[in-house]
DNA sequence: CCTAGTAATGTTATGCTGTAACGGTCAAGG
DNA sequence: CCTTGACCGTTACAGCATAACATTACTAGG
């Protein structure tokens, strides 16, 4: 495949093979560091939810998170438990909400600026997070022309990841 | 205001003053033409739902459409009635789904290519539909670099329209 | 005309997504 | 001690969406 150091971009996790154990540990460590730095509390529940999201680079619905949280605890927590933790993670850039799926994914670019864009594979459910600049640039030019002030941009592309394209080429061009 | 003929782009309805009665009639006429051309049936229910969406350039939730449909008929239709009509309109490019809002808006660019992007005003709920090219270009370059095949892109910016910025400038820069 | 097929609508029931509201727990600080 | 504030636990409900099946309407063929 293409080299990836030639553009200076971060490697796009989600579709590429990588040491996910390290990936997960690094994200968790980063979360702890961020919370210390900002005076936030990464409580047991929040850490557990983040860890659940970090199980893979797929997006999980709130109720799926809730189920796994219940399995991890032995009890059966109610929806607000999951939503509050997810809201905390999203508000602090540790996770993202995928609007197209009404689902949540752990942040794959710890510490980045966080105007991210996402590529969602319909085959395997993997989600890759990429810098949003490319899309945001064109978008903000359009917004300027309109006099519109962008507070937040949702950029989500749905399609087939390299692995899924290789596995079922009938849907290709 | 800024001239709008200097870029060759279509005028961005939704945020600009315009003769909305004509806008609505033209959209309805276009819908009829499209259906005739493609051998589709713009039934009473479908036309009614499209007309409801065309009441303004704001997005409506399915249940709000349902309520208005009930008001227009005198009966109280069930959710699938609205969803089926909305699905038909979306499938044929006569309306669009706004993922961020779980809501639907009439197409404001009849006959266009339909890889549109949307600007959603948090103040007044107006939605402007703009050509998606600007964002799509950067996005597809990223996708190519990843080996990702984009089937559909969701591009939705949330913020303040010119009118709402003027009305409440405290949230400005 | 009658019939069979298809497309759309009507109806029932249910599941997924998200939040309001209130009470309990625990730690920090006067 | 007693307040304050942040978080957690629980109940109840609101909003979004679809599966499944019954019914109606339109259409093509006999
Ligand atoms: Zn990973
Ligand atoms: Zn895939
Ligand atoms: Zn209009
Ligand atoms: Zn506005």
What does this entry look like structurally?
The structure is a homodimer of 173-residue chains. The first copy, chain A, contains six helices and five strands; from the N terminus they run H-H-H-H-E-E-E-E-H-E-H. In chain A, the strands form two sheets. In chain A, strands 4-3-5 form a three-stranded mixed β-sheet. A two-stranded antiparallel ribbon of chain A has the order 1-2. In chain A, helix 3 (62-73) packs across helix 4 (79-91). The first copy, chain A, is globular, with a radius of gyration of 17 Å. By secondary structure, chain A is an alpha+beta fold. Mean pLDDT of chain A is 88; it is low at 1-8. Chain A has helices at 20-38, 44-53, 62-73, 79-91, 133-146, 162-167, and strands spanning 95-98, 103-106, 117-121, 127-130, 149-160. The interface between A and B is large, with 44 and 44 residues. The site of one zinc ion has 7 residues of chain B, from helix 6. Chain B binds a DNA duplex (30 and 30 nucleotides) through residues 41, 43, 45-46, 61-63, 77-81, 83-84, 102.
